[in-house]
Amino acid sequence: MLKEFKDFIAKGNVMDMAVGIIIGAAFTAIVKSMVADLINPFISLFTGGIDFINLFIVLGEGEFATLAEAQEAGVAAFAYGSFIMAVINFLIIAFVVFMLVKMVNKAKDAAEDEKEPEAAPAPKGPTQEDLLAEIRDLLAKS
């Protein structure tokens, strides 16, 4: 059983997946910082200073200035601003991943083009005249 587990772990697909998950987690931190620190200020600038994180509707009693205050008080809140930010994060991550995959595919295609030697011309078969002559000779023998 230990040998089977070792074989399973040693397979390339499992190792590739593990590396992808680790890089993905680090990449997520970078994208979250990019959205929070670089993109949100521009969005706030164009929307009149609206902070999406603090867009919420209190579903219980009380009034709260921020979502954090409402959550700290234990009041149910419909945090649609957080959802908007999650959608923005997703779109940015999806676009960046798309660009990365596009670049990797382009590099992969370029490497494959360099690897592929020019195909040798296929050997020519007998001509029509050669086949007819062979058929004539076979018929003559019969």
Largest sheet: 2 strands, antiparallel
Termini distance?
Answer: 69 Å
Question: How would you write the strand order of the largest sheet?
Answer: 1-2
The general outline is elongated
Find the CATH superfamily: Large-conductance mechanosensitive channel, MscL, domain 1
Mean pLDDT value: 82
Which segments are poorly predicted (pLDDT under 50) over 5 or more consecutive residues? none
Query: What structural category do the secondary elements indicate?
Result: mainly alpha
- Tell me the strand percentage band: under 5%
Q: What's the number of domains? A: 1
CATH class: Mainly Alpha
User: What's the order of the H and E elements?
Assistant: HHEHEHH
Q: What is the CA-atom radius of gyration, in angstroms?
A: 32 Å
Helical stretch tally? 5
Using the coordinates shown, work out and report the CATH topology: Non-ribosomal Peptide Synthetase Peptidyl Carrier Protein, Chain A
How many strands in all? 2
- Percent of residues in helices comes to over 70%
Can you tell me the CATH architecture?
Answer: Orthogonal Bundle
